[in-house]
UniProtKB/TrEMBL annotation:
Transmembrane domains' residue ranges: 15-36, 57-82, 88-119
Mechanosensitive ion channel transmembrane helices 2/3 domain location: 66-104
A GO term, aspect molecular function: mechanosensitive monoatomic ion channel activity
Protein name listed in UniProt: MscS Mechanosensitive ion channel
UniProt domain Mechanosensitive ion channel MscS C-terminal: residue ranges: 180-259
A GO cellular-component term linked to this record: plasma membrane
PANTHER family associated with the record: SMALL-CONDUCTANCE MECHANOSENSITIVE CHANNEL
UniProt keyword Transmembrane helix present: yes
InterPro entries assigned: LSM_dom_sf, MS_channel_1st, MS_channel_C, MscS_archaea/bacteria_type, MscS_beta-dom_sf, MscS_channel_2nd, MscS_channel_C_sf, MscS_channel_TM-2
Length: 283
């Protein structure tokens, strides 16, 4: 007991100082956590209220704000213990170069994610085709882009792969053109077929009038004359309109007395003269 008292008497100021600094560090960490949560909550509330930010940008802003708050808190903690932050920054810079070389692929994903968010080739909810993958964009984070396919599959693709491929965005322009192709027989009237398609185009309320629908003879195929109906719809109406028109075009073409031919081949059998003479000699 006497040793403890003597130790306290001789080191009390140092112990109190260290304890005070430790409490300050804990308080700073706790405050940093609260501030980071508050900043994330504020970003989400501001986005919900004004709806000015793309949903893909919100996770990036939240993560960046959190890192900044904790870095500032760490600087305060180092300053409390009297650490020369200038030397630390220089050391971190050198270490950053080494880590950057070791993690160049990871850093390339981050850089690609920043470029995707800056140039905005797609937004959350857009339906895109990237390379061999098609799906709806769910999220862009620092490292990956999250897609969901038609059949509900989850796809996580590195941002560098997305950035290095051509992006086909089916949603961005707000409208799409559908091409309905139907073949009629060569003996059928082309004008009658075109009249059927024009009537369908006029009666379809989901077609946009600008650009206006068009009908044309698109090709002379081997077994049929191919007619085409082109029309524009909004993105939301595209697929249902396409499915409905494929059914209706077939029914209306047949109702008009026109024929939808099957692929045909004419085969001519020519007997070998030598084989015929041999057969006659044997007889």
């Amino acid at each position: 007991m006497k040793m403890i008292v003597e130790f306290w008497n001789s080191h009390s100021e140092s112990i109190i100082g260290i304890g005070y600094k430790a409490l300050l560090c804990v308080a700073i960490l706790f405050a940093s956590t609260l501030v980071a949560k508050g900043v994330r909550r504020s970003i989400n509330k501001a986005n919900d209220r004004f709806e000015k930010l793309d949903a893909t940008l919100v996770p990036i802003l939240c993560a960046t704000a959190t890192y900044v708050v904790y870095i500032i808190g760490g600087v305060f903690i180092l300053d409390i213990f009297g650490v020369n932050t200038t030397s630390i920054i220089a050391l971190l810079g050198a270490a950053g170069i080494a880590v950057g070389l070791a993690l160049k692929d990871t850093l390339s994903n981050i850089a690609a994610g920043v470029m995707l968010l800056f140039l905005r080739p797609f937004r959350s909810g857009d339906f895109v085709e990237i390379g061999s993958v098609m799906g709806s964009v769910r999220e862009i984070n620092l490292f990956t882009t999250i897609l969901e396919t038609f059949d509900g599959l989850y796809i996580s693709s590195p941002n560098s792969v997305i950035w290095g491929n051509s992006v086909k965005n089916y949603t961005r322009n707000g409208k799409r053109r559908m091409d309905i192709v139907i073949g009629i027989a060569y003996s059928d009237s082309i004008d009658t077929g075109l009249d059927v398609l024009k009537r369908i185009a006029v009666e379809e309320p989901r077609f946009l009038q600008d650009p206006a629908p068009e009908t044309m003879v698109v090709s002379l195929a081997e077994s049929s004359v191919n007619l085409q109906l082109r029309g524009w719809t909004t993105i939301g109406d595209y697929w249902q309109t396409c499915w409905d028109l494929n059914k209706r075009v077939k029914e209306e073409i047949e109702k008009a007395g026109l024929t939808i031919p099957f692929p045909q081949r004419s085969v001519h059998v020519v007997a070998n003269p030598g084989t015929a003479e041999a057969a006659e000699a044997g007889a």
